[in-house]
Amino acid sequence: QLQLVESGGGLVQPGGSLRLSCAASGFTMENYALAWFRQDPGKAREGISCIRSNGEIKYADSVKGRFTISRDNANKRVYLQMNSLKLEDTGVYYCAANIYYCSSHMDYWGRGTQVTVSS
Questions:
Q1: Are the CB atoms for 51 and 33 separated by under 8 Å?
Q2: HSE-up of 12 (CA within 13 Å, CB side)?
């Protein structure tokens, strides 16, 4: 059974950093695109970043230059390094997986981890 479990969220001040981690199990990670999404209550889910198995990476304009996605296929993990955090980065961050391609409609989702940026 494919499973994604996020960790690393928390409370951070503006300008601070957090590193999110997503542990994957139950599938051959090498064949999948892995992504991070963010959602605030009352707002639409937003794609933050996605990394394909060939190394191709996409970022939302709102996080370019501040966030870095990476993957470790051997240890079945995907990471999101978040620097220079802003108040508007607050939300629940979800890890998602999809065979081969990045998509706004990923097939598999974790339960999310809360990130709160506040002074």
A1: yes
A2: 22
